[in-house]
Amino acid sequence: MKNERDEQFHQFVVSRRAALVRTATLLTAGDAHLAEDLVQSTLTKLYVAWPAFQRADNPDGYVRRVLVNALTDERRRWWRRSERPMAEVPDRAAVSHIEGDLSGGLRVALRELPPRMRAALVFRYFYDLDIADTADALGCSEGTVKSQTARALDRLRTVLGPNPSLALL
Known about the structure:
Number of helices: 9
Helix content: 55-70%
Number of strands: 0
Protein name: SigE family RNA polymerase sigma factor
Structural class: mainly alpha
Family: Belongs to the sigma-70 factor family. ECF subfamily.
Distance between the termini: 48 Å
Radius of gyration: 17 Å
Largest sheet: none
Keywords: DNA-binding, Sigma factor, Transcription, Transcription regulation
């Protein structure tokens, strides 16, 4: 039997899960499997902290922060460092999947960025957050957001070269 908290959380998941997966996919530079893991981890943490989430002044900022923290935690896992990503898993049939809204070159370039630089770009340019909201999501100062964003854009320009789609950033 569901209690009121469970029902509220269920409604939250139903209404926000797709947006969380999109954000996580951007944060992971198109890694759909890792994005799903991050969303599941984020939802688990939110469920545990549901009363605090409901009291938050900025619920969207709270969720972004939990998602970024989940990404940071994931990148710190010892087995992740020794994992070798492969285009196709050996001994299994190839599965096609939707790559999302990113072009192949931009996805590869984003993948080369450290997670916090990538997160700064995603929140600033894909979600059009201001510097203060991005700093809040990343748990850092506004100056750090500015420097991380500038460095990330420089790296992307180096990797992608003169590219009209990068002019939007």
